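In response to reviewer comment 3 from the previous cycle, which asked for concrete evidence that the modeling workflow produces usable outputs, we include below a single protein chain processed end to end. The sequence was submitted unchanged, and the resulting structure tokens are shown without manual editing.
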Amino acid sequence: MILKPVERVPSISAHDFGENYLKPLKPLVIQNLTQDWPAKTKWTYEYFKSLAGDKVVPVYDNSIPTPDTAVNKPDGMMKFGDYLDTIASTPTELRIFLFNIFDHIPDLLNDFSYFDSLCGGFLKKYPMMFFGGAGSKVFLHFDMDLSHVFITQFKGKKRVILFDNQHSAALYKLPFMVQSYIDPENPDYEKHPALKNVEGYETILADGETLFMPSGIWHYMNYIEGGFALSLRSMSTPIATKLKGLYYLFVMRKIDDFMKKNFTRKWYHYKHEAAAKNAPKVG
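The workflow returned the following structure tokens.
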């Protein structure tokens, strides 16, 4: 496995971004894209606690799902304020990714803006926030809707590893899913030999920096420090990509849900066996 640094720029013109990153689907870190956001100064743990600290939120650890665990099922529930105190003060695997903070604090929507000058088609009804403690990880996956994603990091650093979608088979993609449970930080070449020939990107995303993740790119994240991020999604993609995303969302996912519900263990083992069988052979 070969990882090269994601390119980084302080700022970029719309023309350069479109020609050199958006069209070729190449990731990029833009360091000063959010300088004028009120969120830069307003968004703190104490601020969130004062507005939604009593809300009970689902939290997730680094456990890999087994045949007896459901994907996206919470590993616990906590008050949001208690969770923020935890990630601010101590390492923890716990992270939050299915709590829509904007439903509870709609005024947060006034604290940032979209990057319309760089890329149109933003899904402005669906901004998302992610929170994680130092040591929490996001398993390798690509986003099912195949949108472009601009993710801005706040309060902390995380390591991000990225792979082009063309490497899906070599990453041991599970059938009928957009996930893989290989560990790109500690690849097991005996168990997963196809990883030897995979090329990807890596970067450390720091406070205030924005990472452009193009449509379909595989991503894995490891929180070096506790922190949170804002994700803005754009559907400025070809019609064929939009249709494929709709298939993933409304057909493939439904098939997987049905099979998991009715053939839990057989389906689990089939997918893992198929992932290994579909991987390129290494001589």
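The radius of gyration is 19 Å. We consider this sufficient to address the reviewer's concern, and the full set will be provided in the supplementary archive.
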